[in-house]
Amino acid sequence: MKKYLCEFIGTAVLVLFGCGSAAVAGTTLGTLGIALAFGLSIVAMAYVIGEISGCHINPAVSLAMLINKKMDVKEFLFYVLSQVLGALFGIALLYLIMKQAGLDVANLGQNGYGAISSVGLSMVGAIIVEIILTFVFIYTILGVTSNEKMASVSGLVIGLTLAFVHIMGIPLTGTSVNPARSLAPALFVGGEALKQVWVFIVAPFIGSALAAFTYKFTHAPEKKK
After folding, report:
1. 223 in a domain, yes or no?
2. In the chain, N or C terminus with fewer CB closer than 10 Å?
3. Domain that includes residue 77, residue range
4. What digits encode the pLDDT tens for the residues 78-99?
């Protein structure tokens, strides 16, 4: 239960501060500021809950760990449930804060393409972008978490990687790379964001699976002749 509680808390923090920065101060912070908010949320949580749950706080990360046999199916399902509930709790807090401040709750940092995308990216473009961004993010995570020498800086590396994929992704899709992070605001906002959210659930899972299988191939021990 400690692991699942940590995943709940970690995902709530990521969504509250990441999506919150986009919704409340997006025009002030800009792309770089929002990207850092997401990345620094990971850094903070990694050094608090990393030793307990691994600080996945993302179903796409948990899927990669499942594929690489670092967790079983039952644990994976409970991780995802904890992450989704944490994301919903984080968005509920953001919604409440924005309501109390009299701010427009039509923007809760949701992802989207077409009219929702800052550059009008198409659905196909959004799928491609999210697969690529998630691939890079997950591939990096697998690399740093599999190397004991990187243990002391893994949280920092992962957080900075999340920040840099956001720098490219924010103008295109708002950057998901995390199905739980995308589902929560879409459920609260509804409308077009909810209709489009399947893209930001399916594409990150595809990117994660591709990264996991690629990592297994590129880092498999060489067979002795």
Report:
1. no
2. C
3. 2-218
4. 999 999 999 999 999 999 999 9
